[in-house]
Amino acid sequence: MTTAYITHEDCLLHNMGPDHPESPVRLQAIRKVLERTGLMDHMDQLTAVPASAEQIQLAHAKLHQKKLEMKVPREGVVYTDEDTALCPHSLDAAHLAAGGVILATNRVLSGKAQNAFCAVRPPGHHAEYNLPMGFCFYNNVAIGACHALLQEGIERVAVLDFDVHHCNGTVDIFKDRPEVLVCSTFQYPYYPERYCEIDRPNIVNCPIAAHSDNSVFRKAIEERWLPALEAHKPDIIFISAGFDAHKEDPMADLNLDEEDYRWVTQQIMQMAEKHSHKRIVSVLEGGYSPVALAFSVQAHLEVLAGF
Ligand SMILES: [Zn+2]
Description:
Layout: E1 3-7, H1 25-36, E2 44-47, H2 53-56, H3 62-71, E3 78-81, E4 84-86, H4 90-109, E5 115-118, H5 140-149, E6 157-161, H6 168-174, E7 180-187, E8 203-208, H7 214-232, E9 236-241, H8 258-275, E10 280-284, H9 290-304
Parallel strand pairs: 1-2, 1-5, 5-10, 6-7, 6-9, 7-8, 9-10
Antiparallel strand pairs: 3-4
Bound molecules: zinc ion (ZN).
């Protein structure tokens, strides 16, 4: 079975300035490693198409979309919060990022791919129903999950997020939708400090103290995520694949490495095999050391592609 690799070169045009960590270099580094190792040749490479306004509004207020459209500058950058900025190409890239996840979902649900990885930016998991934040404008993974739930035979989905930051946006969008299980591991206390303590049966928040070793992460997956997945039995699993909990990542203070990403992907694969017809759509979120990011994505994809 095939692993689809979905991206678009215009995702590189979103540029928040030369010193911003969420830079086009991230996607270039991933491509370089996947090409050099030959892994790219073993995947079905597809080009993202932009999400429509209706598709964006599966997870966002119409007003959210309108406000962003009004803010796009003709040149330079305009900040939507202290660390998130729009350049003239940002929203086009954001539509491609969300559309890439919809394409991935369609490929997996139609059986044309067993699973898919979306190498897209801007990332999405901090974007709430009516709020852009934390480098995110549209919640790509949430839009894909909402799209999946509209398809015949898809009644329950799971979104699994191992980015070092808590997925406040994904929780905001799904907190009152019990058909969506959201599991998150994240450094705590740490940005963004929203929805970390929410109490809902479909939200599994696993805070991890800074400087914890990888056994704490693995224990959270084994003791919290896996039992929740066993109970939820999702028809398809989405992954918010952020790699900024890597020990070499400059942004945060957890101590994972490539082998932890390989391990967690294996755990998710086993669950998908058991409950979800092997269907997985993985979506890039954070990861700000280009080298650590690229090697982590390689480990993640080696498992997804069955290497
Ligand atoms: Zn992050």
